[in-house]
Amino acid sequence: MEPKIRQDYNHKLSLKELPYIINWDSSKCTRCGKCTAVCPVKAIEPAVFVKRLVESEGPFPTPQTVKKVVHGIKQVTDINRNCVGCNMCNMVCPNNAIFPEFNPSNKFLIHKNQDGEPYKRGGRRNDPDVSTLDKLKFTRISMLTDPALDAQRHEFNIRSYIGRILPAEKLPIFCKEEDNSLFIDDTAFVPPVREIFPIMIGSMSMGALSPRMWEGLIMGVTYLNEVEKLPVVMCSGEGGAPPRLLKSRFIKYMILQIASGYFGWDEIIHAIPHMKEDPAGIEIKYGQGAKPGDGGLLMAQKVLPLIAKIRGVPMNVDLPSPPTHQTKYSIEEAVAKMLTSMSMAFGFRVPVYPKISGTKTAKAVLNNLARNPFAAALSIDGEDGGTGAAYNVSLDKMGHPIVSNLRECYLDLVASGKQNELPLIAAGGIGKTGNLAANAAAMIMLGASAVSIGKYIMQAAAGCLGDEKNRCNVCNLGLCPKGITTQDPKLYKRLDSEKVAERVVDIFKSANIELKKIFAPMGRSTELPIGMSDGLSVMDKSIADRLKIDYAC
Which of 100, 132, 290, 302 gets the most CB atoms within 10 Å of its CB? Predict the structure, then answer.
């Protein structure tokens, strides 16, 4: 039996191989069991230990060695139940007796690929470096009055647009009847345009997010529009929306997304005749910046009855949105077909635009859109965009940074004289380190008409525990300990929709003030400084040359 025992242990992993090691203090622990109950991946479990103790008892105590059985907590070494560092055990512990500690010498990725299946995870790419966005500074400040405008008292118009802005010569003109009455010549097509706040909530589907998280976001967006008068919009993500929402007046604050899986579109198409309001826009997703070349994926663990019903699919099956589809033979053909058909479906009243992943071929898509009269915008998703499920290699090793991609697309529009016609929406890493307004303002000055945020809103509004060092990031498995990205009622009941809505309102009101603070010294109050790159500087010469902005040191 001895060799067999040695072989068994030889093929086990030690705690040193895992990314997080649980620190447990036996003297503080009351054995209440809260930590083991709340652990989303079951990385810890109750255990029984035999301890050797030295005791001295009685009137003439003589030290004696005794063995006692004690109860405690044990961390498992199963790679499929590794601690993800979410810290929920510490949050519920009444005595601070347990907490996870990052293990910098771990060999997690070496061991994680089990059964021939590459490691999948949620969250965002593992990138501890400072992003290009956070290196940019605003250096154009008025010398006449500093600041040029009073950000607290001056009236600002922090607004942008989704929709094609026609040049003056193509706008409808007034014509004169024989009886000298005037009428508008509306024979020419006038694209639909929506006024929006320049920071929008990006595509996170009902399926990727829990019902309570989705509800909280919509409640917050509705309050911002109807009470605070900030026209914030939210994209539904692929997966449709509840019929009750589709037929309500609140749909006008939503951008509905369609992707190659067409999930949830049966419900949307059937709801069109009954819609009280048009949606804010239609986004056609061709790619995600966090996993370019891959389609979207909602893993089977999250396809529970509610999601299966809304999406019109069976329960407990993986739902991939393939990167190619039998109706899409090329990006040019696909964009033209989908833009036209979606515009027709909504009577040419709703802006329709595609979303692509950041890539060197983004300009090819842009040039086709510039000639398409039905194109309302182009959304580009950079490599730092979050995802609900992706292969680790896609998240960490594929993609294009949003800053340079957006900049070269905008300069391409400038070269063709269409920079004021076709809006560009930038996504992927906006607010990655918490500097939401500064990052958004920098992207606007590089050429974006609006920016889209996802991971930031989850962290700020609901306290998402994931980070760029692979902490937590079990969004794909439906085990979110905060109840944000899970369809398990036991987990998402931990989340309060009303508190999420309150934080969403706080976030956008704060961003609105900070944008005013940034734009005031530049003398911009009536319109966004889109493309005003002479107001930016950077201390890195290579970045300055790439983005064609000032180098300052």
Answer: 290
Q: Which domain holds residue 78?
A: 14-112
Phi then psi dihedrals of residue 384, to 5 deg: -85, 5
Q: pLDDT for 482-539, tens place per residue?
A: 999 999 999 999 999 999 999 999 999 999 999 998 988 888 888 899 999 999 999 9
Q: What is the CATH number of the domain that holds 18?
A: 3.30.70.20
pLDDT single digits (tens) 289-323: 888 877 788 899 899 888 998 888 899 898 888 76
Model-level pTM?
0.90
**Can you read off the two tokens belonging to residue 256?**
């509905």
From residue 411, give the alpha-carbon distance in Å to each of 78, 106, 179, 450, 488. Answer: 52, 44, 48, 16, 46
For residue 226, give both structure tokens: 């109807």
Please give the Cα distance from 351 to 284 (Å, whole number).
11
* CA atoms of 452 and 474, how far apart (whole Å): 23
SS3 105: coil
Output the domain CATH number for residue 476.
Answer: 3.20.20.70
The total number of structural domains that make up the chain: 2
CA distance 413 to 144: 33
